Amino acid sequence: MLGEFQETLLQSVKAFQSTELVMNKYENVLQHLDSGIMLFDTEGTMTFINVRMAKLLELPRQSLIGCNLAQLLKHPGISHYKRKKIIGLYRETIVYRKRNFEFMDEYGRYWLATITYSDEMDGDYLVSVKDVSEFKQIEETAYQNDKLAMLGKISAAIAHEIRNPLTAIRGFIQLLKPHLVQLGRDEYAQIILSEIDRANDIIYEFLNSSKPSTPQKSVISVASLLKEVVLLTESEALMKGCEISIKEVAPQMSIAVDVKQIKQVLLNMIKNAMEAIEEVGSEHSGQIEVKAELEEKYVNISIRDNGKGMDKAMLAKLFSPFFTTKEKGTGLGLSVSYRIIKNHRGTIFADSIKGAGTIFVISLPLAT
Ligand SMILES: Nc1ncnc2c1ncn2[C@@H]1O[C@H](COP(=O)(O)OP(=O)(O)O)[C@@H](O)[C@H]1O
Ligand SMILES: [Mg+2]
């Protein structure tokens, strides 16, 4: 009898231990999931939080178990930014009963929070948070590409419409030319013709770069490309009170690019830099630094200025067509540049500090 009892007891202890083991295993899995997880019971008390979620909240895990929402919001370690996001999450999912809440953290990463509560959860509330920055980036790129494709179409139509009257004007000026020669004003005809040709060239170039065309590539040394571009902008820079300098370019670096298009990109960026410096004020001594560095099979060309700089929100819109903060801006310079660099299988990266300056880094594959 006693033996039987002992046997049963032993069996239940074993069963308990093995459930405990399974529980530990599950808890371990939950702890190390790459999503953040919190569980609140019917009373609204937190009964579980995993490592990832505590990391996201930047609070010690042990100090959170047993808290309710109000206590979590009043936690001495919680940042103002996070408090706002938690209130947002509560409002959207509990008050407005939306399934998901998407937000950006203070480090620029995107998160998708989901709350599950219903019969299936036995009255508990499960909050899970997933890092969706990569999806977001793909989505943004798709959106950007869509806008650029539209821009390509619009610009092609406009350019076409402008070219026709230009051709007509060119024809009539040629007809008038003999009369101007008679009046001793043949240089007027010359100027008009060359200006019309220049306008045509600009349209042609713009069309070329806004369409997803394959670039006309030739091999050029990075050093001579940068020298040429700086030479073209130096006098304008001087007039605007800024100094352009080229730093650290290894002479043997060469790239296979459409030289006209890449020049257009660099000129756009230097022009933007000069304008950003000009906006700080005439007292400001502007510096634009152009640099080219090797990184594996790429060359990173950077243009750094100490102009007015930009905040994060502006940085995010930078490459969108028609985004401009200038009265006479078109907002096309950077979106066209983006397209050109993409066509060259390169990348553009921008970083900026408001009030301090901006850096653009163009990465292009080296010629093989
Ligand atoms: N170097 C820079 N420093 C500060 N802001 C810049 C810089 N480059 C670009 N920007 C910002 O990005 C916007 C878009 O630039 P861009 O596409 O060249 O168009 P635009 O120069 O016609 O405004 C500018 O209006 C400006 O606000
Ligand atoms: Mg510009």
TrEMBL record:
<feature type="domain" description="Histidine kinase">
    <location>
        <begin position="157"/>
        <end position="368"/>
    </location>
</feature>
<feature type="domain" description="PAS">
    <location>
        <begin position="22"/>
        <end position="76"/>
    </location>
</feature>
<dbReference type="Pfam" id="PF00989">
    <property type="entry name" value="PAS"/>
</dbReference>
<dbReference type="InterPro" id="IPR036097">
    <property type="entry name" value="HisK_dim/P_sf"/>
</dbReference>
<dbReference type="InterPro" id="IPR003661">
    <property type="entry name" value="HisK_dim/P_dom"/>
</dbReference>
<dbReference type="InterPro" id="IPR005467">
    <property type="entry name" value="His_kinase_dom"/>
</dbReference>
<dbReference type="GO" id="GO:0005524">
    <property type="term" value="F:ATP binding"/>
</dbReference>
<keyword id="KW-0547">Nucleotide-binding</keyword>
<dbReference type="GO" id="GO:0000155">
    <property type="term" value="F:phosphorelay sensor kinase activity"/>
</dbReference>
<protein>
    <recommendedName>
        <fullName>histidine kinase</fullName>
        <ecNumber>2.7.13.3</ecNumber>
    </recommendedName>
</protein>
<dbReference type="GO" id="GO:0006355">
    <property type="term" value="P:regulation of DNA-templated transcription"/>
</dbReference>
<keyword id="KW-0597">Phosphoprotein</keyword>
<dbReference type="InterPro" id="IPR013767">
    <property type="entry name" value="PAS_fold"/>
</dbReference>
<keyword id="KW-0902">Two-component regulatory system</keyword>
<dbReference type="InterPro" id="IPR035965">
    <property type="entry name" value="PAS-like_dom_sf"/>
</dbReference>
<dbReference type="InterPro" id="IPR004358">
    <property type="entry name" value="Sig_transdc_His_kin-like_C"/>
</dbReference>
<dbReference type="Pfam" id="PF00512">
    <property type="entry name" value="HisKA"/>
</dbReference>
<keyword id="KW-0418">Kinase</keyword>
<dbReference type="InterPro" id="IPR000014">
    <property type="entry name" value="PAS"/>
</dbReference>
<dbReference type="Pfam" id="PF02518">
    <property type="entry name" value="HATPase_c"/>
</dbReference>
<keyword id="KW-0808">Transferase</keyword>
<dbReference type="InterPro" id="IPR003594">
    <property type="entry name" value="HATPase_dom"/>
</dbReference>
<dbReference type="InterPro" id="IPR036890">
    <property type="entry name" value="HATPase_C_sf"/>
</dbReference>
<keyword id="KW-0067">ATP-binding</keyword>
